[in-house]
Request: fold
Amino acid sequence: MGRRRFLGLGAALTGSLAVGGKQAIADPAQESPPADAPWSQSIGAGVVDRPYGRPADTEASVIRRNVPWLTASAESSVSFSPLQDLHGIITPNGLFFERHHAGRPDIDPAQHKLMIHGLVERPLLLTMKDIMRFPSVSRIHFIECPANGGMNWRAAQMNSLQFSHGMVSCAEWTGVKLSTLLEEVGIKKQAKWAMVEGADGAHMNRSLPLDKCLDDCLVVYAQNGEALRPEQGYPLRLVVPGWEGNVNIKWLRRIKLGEKPWHTREETSKYTDLMPDGTSRGFTWLIDAKSVVTFPCPEKPLDGPGLYEIRGLAWTGNGKVKRVDVSMDGGVNWQTARLHEPVLSKALTKFTLPWRWDGRPALVASRVIDENGYVQPTIAQLRAQRGSNSVYHNNSIQTWQVKSDGSVFNVQLA
Amino acid sequence: MYSSRKICLPIIAILLACAANLAGAAEPGSFGYGSVATPAQIAGWDIDVRGEDGTGLPPGNGTVDRGAEVYAEQCAACHGTFGEGEGRFPKLVGGVGSLRDERPEPTVGSYWPFAPTLWDYINRAMPMQAPHTLSADDVYALTAYILNLNDLVPHEFVADRNSLPKVKMRNRDNFIWTDPRPDTMTKPCMNDCVNAADVRISSTAEGRNLTPRTTGPLDTMQQK
Reply:
């Protein structure tokens, strides 16, 4: 019997044994063993066939995505990380969420300089080569846009993990401590604030208290082991661990020390939180503790009753995640999930919990508690304090409704 | 045999050397990388303006009428002829008294706390297609025009480094600049935390048709 005929017979046999009404496909991959798939009986591409490398072609759907109706133009907009297809705590560089205010500049690193001036002893102009000579550090931190989840303040709107939580990503950043650079220029006694500014068309700038600059801020040129991606600020960006994404200035070109904050457009007109009484909160930099179940989620429904591993991510800008609890009944009862090492300060933390699904409707939610004892609030608790027009800092508990057919929906509970 | 003194002296010497090194590391210029920025280099990039008191505003001035001309040419296509905003581009005018409403409208007139911030933002970030290309006078003129559209200054107003910090913005005193969070307190209850019968879905994203697809090519959906 020739190989071709043998394969055909196999397909017929499999077809006759198929259960559940599913059509068998005459595809060796479906039948093996005993049949070898074509890729097991041929030679593959050689080294440097793809000198940089890229994901498998079948992963083409795993990309950053935007909400076209959300913003006036793609140049001043956001894209969301596909959390539903990511595993672990590190976001691959090509999938790190984007937030631009004047598009992504393509900068020649040979021409890029960082100026540090203002209330300093010795103002400096540093080239990229200069910056890379300073003592280096590598640290893993998340960055989250404070508007992540903003579309769900008023009601459950986005039926998707990617679009409800995808403006958070996490990477290992390498660069120089901002404190090292500030000590090198010499901080004058009157200096209390820093103005940090980008080289993009927005000349994006924010004020930061000097204490935070000296505490843990990093001026970084690398992300997950390679040069920053242009979308993340190539060749140089600021990382302000645990604070809202907007202050993590990309394409960083200037740091000026001063006595008072600047009250820039991005910290008055935007990135301030409007309260129901008409007052607004400004300088709300901290990303409070937040968590989300990443499986199941609307993009990844359940496939019939049985044993599953609930998976999720938790993070806080206020130190480390201490505990994550998971509820399957809309918050009536909670079980403590397992945290996976490494549990790092101001980094995404992975949690899992085994769950035997009986096929009945469920309301799956997670709740993080940080090392300060702060408990992730419900959306109702947040609304009671802040109404629903504050746009930013929605760190509420996310509830996924699991229907008996396994489909999953974004819901909010009364 | 070594005396303790013989051991101690070199150790002390090493410690002193280390201390000197550490102290040295904190001295300005101890690495010596880069070049000292000259006043001319600093002047080229030193564009920031402080919102509260206008520190950093340059010489120059602009009138409301000149602002109307520049606005028609540079801004109206996105922000609308009278600041009403085209499409989803930001409104610059209106919304006064709306901040406690169900649908507040934060604009220069209703929300912005400091007038010099308007000069700074136009100067650094506008017009969107060619940011930081307008003259200081034209930025002053645009600032005057937009403040006038919002009835914050009279038609005769001339914007300059002295007049802008004095403009009283409507929402100036309604910002709290210290973060009051944490503003929710919970004890993490584990069992029978709420009555199961009271668990009710108050809102669902199902059927809303607002979510772009998350498989296949990028979605171009617009809101219905």
Remarks:
- Residues 290-411 of chain A form a domain with the Immunoglobulin-like fold (CATH 2.60.40.650).
- Chain A has two domains: 93-280, 290-411.
- Residues 1-25 of chain A have pLDDT under 50 and may be disordered.
